[in-house]
Amino acid sequence: MKQETVLTAPLRTHPVFSKLTAEQQDRVLKKARRVYLESGEHLFEYGDKAERFFQVVEGQIKLFRLSPEGGEKVIEIVTPGTLFAEALMFTDRGTYPVSAEALSQAELLAFDSKGFKAVLEESPETCVMVNAELSSWLEHLVEEVNALTLHNATLRVANYLLRLMPAVSPQGQDGIRLPAPKHLIASRLSITPETLSRIFHNLTEAGFITVERDVVYIHDVEGLRACSERAVCSRRSQ
């Protein structure tokens, strides 16, 4: 069952809070909450009033939409450290455009959008930082649209793996743990689970990766990057 507690820790967990004064942080904290979800529990539903934005502390959150026929399309899988729904405070929409569900036990920080927007109006430096975050997110969305409309399935998967690859493990030798079950990742990339499995098999045969359950080891980063740029994997177009 979803639980909420008062948030008391200093807001040092994301760059957008770093420019706030102590007094501004106190104001944000008064309305902030720590939210706990069980696996499968919903944080909010499509069409709910968008009064808060969130940051994932632990676990993963699936953002998704349902078609009129009941089919599910995964929009994003949000991982620890990431803010989401913050852009809605600058729009007139007023409701969440997606639903949010915990893929595992999850802990989040929830912030009052109206109160935070009022603080932003007093802090030009923080406004600039938030705008930079939103611009980065917009760039990410543009890349996603290009990938979904212009790239074949193999290129999408290669790009996705490269984005997941941590900087601390540049050759992927420690493995990349997939942030969600493979069928959800397939939905996120607008392909079928069978296609994802076939692409993983092809990339393994080519020597780029190996897959062990939910962990992917990247053995040839440059080869995979070339694949993502249509230089090597084009012959395996899906």
Task: Characterize the structure shown.
The chain contains seven helices and twelve strands. With 238 residues, the chain is α+β, with helices and mostly antiparallel strands. It has two domains: 3-147, Jelly Rolls, CATH 2.60.120.10; 151-236, Arc Repressor Mutant, subunit A.
The overall pLDDT average reads 82
**CATH topology of the largest domain, what is it called?**
Jelly Rolls
How many E-type strands? 12
Name the CATH homologous superfamily of the largest domain: Jelly Rolls
| Radius of gyration, in angstroms, nearest whole number | 19 Å
Question: H/E order of the elements?
Answer: EHEEEEEEEEHHHEHHEEH
Strand order of the largest sheet: 1-2-9-4-7
The structural class is: alpha+beta
Q: How do the strands and helices of this protein lay out in sequence?
A:
Blueprint: E1 3-6, H1 22-31, E2 33-37, E3 42-44, E4 52-58, E5 61-66, E6 72-78, E7 83-84, E8 99-102, E9 106-112, H2 113-120, H3 124-150, H4 153-164, E10 176-177, H5 182-188, H6 193-205, E11 209-212, E12 215-218, H7 221-228
Helix pairs in contact: 4-7, 5-6
What characteristics describe this protein?
alpha+beta; 238 residues; Jelly Rolls; 12 strands; 2 domains
Brief sketch in words of this structure:
This protein has 238 residues and is α+β, with helices and mostly antiparallel strands. The protein has seven helices and twelve strands.
